[in-house]
């Protein structure tokens, strides 16, 4: 309950303070930290790799590690399809929020938070060409690696949709992995 209240308060504060303004890496990182805990699949709303997680202990789990200096996302923990994405602020000045996704497809794309297009209820991470050659590769088919990750929050932070998209895919396109979760 306290996490829900904190998420709502932070969301309202960030919304009013950043209306029409670019979000900071620190704002996005603080929102990611509020995801801490286990989330369950919303029945019938999964697409792509998330449909393989039926044997997972939880659908998705977020952990704060390293004295809260990093956020670890575990997608389908305990299943054969478990994947991990690690996020942290890149330097002591909190200028860049970066992440690395450890995929069952045996690749590790690197991400950077999209500060211009992220909002209080939509966090966007795009493949970082400066940290990952995969971002510029000629992928064999759309979705052969996760080019961007988008977290959308609904119901005051009680539900979330996570989009794991290949290069050129958009949130409303078909054919990429989309997972829906609730607390």
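Q: What amino acid sequence fits the structure above?
A:
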């Amino acid at each position: 309950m306290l996490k829900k209240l904190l998420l709502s308060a932070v969301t309202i504060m960030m919304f009013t303070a950043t209306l029409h303004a670019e979000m900071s890496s620190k704002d996005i990182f603080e929102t990611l930290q509020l995801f801490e805990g286990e989330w369950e699949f919303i029945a019938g709303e999964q697409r792509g790799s998330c449909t393989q997680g039926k044997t997972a202990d939880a659908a998705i789990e977020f952990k704060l590690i390293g004295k809260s200096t990093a956020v670890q996302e575990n997608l389908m923990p305990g299943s054969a399809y478990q994947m991990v994405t690690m996020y942290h602020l890149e330097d002591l000045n909190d200028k860049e929020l970066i992440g690395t996704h450890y995929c069952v497809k045996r690749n590790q794309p690197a991400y950077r938070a999209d500060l211009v297009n992220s909002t209080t209820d939509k966090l966007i991470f795009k493949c970082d060409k400066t940290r990952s050659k995969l971002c510029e590769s000629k992928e064999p088919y759309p979705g052969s690696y996760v080019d961007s990750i988008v977290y959308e929050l609904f119901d005051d932070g009680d539900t979330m949709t996570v989009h794991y998209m290949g290069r050129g895919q958009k949130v409303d396109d078909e054919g990429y992995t989309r997972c829906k979760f609730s607390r």
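Q: And what stands out in the fold?
A: The longest strand covers residues 83-89.
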